[in-house]
Amino acid sequence: MSQFNNRRSRRRPTASSLWSVPFLAGTLIVLCIAAGILFFVKKNDSALGGKIEKETGAAESAFSGESGVAGESGEESAADHESAENANDLEGVLAAADRKAKMYDYDGAIADLKASAFADDEQVTKAVEGYEQTKSTLVRQDTSKVTHVFFHTLVVDSSKAFDGDSREAGYNQVMTTIPEFKKILQQMYDRGFVLVRLHDVAYEEKQADGSMKMKPGDIMLPEGKKAFVMSQDDVCYYEYMTGDGFATKMVIDEDGKPKCEYQKDDGTVDVGDYDLVPILDQFIEEHPDFSYRGAKACLAFTGYNGVLGYRTDDAYLTNEKFLAAHPDFDMEKEKQSVRDVAECLRKDGYELASHTWGHRNVGAISLADLQTDTDKWANRVESLIGKSDIILFPFGADIADWHPYNTADDRYQILYKAGFRYICNVDSNQYFVQYGDDYFRQGRRNLDGYRMYYDLPESNPTKSHLDDLFDVNEVFDRSRPTPVPPMGHETKGVGNVTAGH
């Protein structure tokens, strides 16, 4: 208005009618010119040398704010912001599909891309074509030759686990150290192994008569890749392990990921990668092609000491010594923590399983004891972690020999009626897989101090139990006391794995 006012003072008009028409006309001309410039800029921004183009490729408006001056406000228009978001969404859609494809879920990757808002985008159509081509080259895995490896709680501090006390021998036999576990993961990855779930290896299919029948899974992997199953026993962080160099509890961190607590020498508690779950998670995060469609390990629980480091068993409510030492003990809070962590683990790709409630030898105890233990598992553990159809037998035991199960057998019926369909013992052979109409059975290979020590060249050069998996001479942790005691050596407080070695 300052220019107009100056003009008015020079002309000394006597009435507004003398200048209103020129003013309106001039204003209209200016607006038309501005609109034309805006249209031209938006349609020809590339011709302006990219001066108004953002790094994302979304065009900015040539004018911002109310001032009418290009670029002064520094704010994006709603359209510009939406355009930038769309570009980021495209990148996100492509990245998510790429991760699925790296985990061999090409069907999922293709379906997601075709269902996205960018289905007709050239990048998307090329990605779909590439996934279709790769999918056509996949090879069906022979599920009768899927190996299954397992671990117990990992040793965080060897100096504490192997300190010469009464539990050292047991730890030395059946535990694996964190350095060993990390080397095993890397070597198995380098050799083309891909982690799958038990439910990938076998699944139940409904028959015409309404019954269910176990069928071999349909696992498709690139040529040269080899499917395998991983499990971990006793994910309970027993009381007797306190102070012996192991994690003490599984928790959910601030990012919603399962981690483990570890008590340091000064009494402080740290949260981090102190056991199999967070270490495996991190490895798969860095190597997504180590996991088939997001598969992780199968985790097995007893219940007599609680689950996942939480003291949830009914016995703690009447344990006067424990209650005196833990005056703030809250059973319901402990149980809710287990529910939360178990749900987190399932969402993270883990399968959850029974290891019996009392760590019992299922082939040796009486039928009455087996039934009692199975009921305790259902009421005190499964009620917290959710329904499970998997049982991993303690001590490497089984309810029968290697022949197919007699499904009319009383022991089998107790387990079957409890809902178990996937049943695993311990067997040092490379493969032991058995499909029954009502069950899937698999042997597991212990990758622990005992197995590794007695496969070392200096211990027994004729043994080759682990050659297909990794180089034991490179993996074996030399901080272990040697010789590792043979199985049958008396140990205290540690569940021995004796069968099938």
UniProtKB/TrEMBL annotation:
Residue intervals passing through the bilayer: 21-41
Domain of life: Bacteria
Gene Ontology biological process: carbohydrate metabolic process
Compositionally biased residues, Low complexity: 61-72
Region of interest called Disordered, as start-end residue ranges on this chain: 61-86, 480-501
Keywords: Membrane, Transmembrane, Transmembrane helix
UniProt key word Ribosomal protein: no
Cross-referenced InterPro entries: Glyco_hydro/deAcase_b/a-brl, Polysacch_Deacetylase
KW Metal-binding (keyword) present: no
Protein name, as recorded: Polysaccharide deacetylase
Organism: [Clostridium] aminophilum
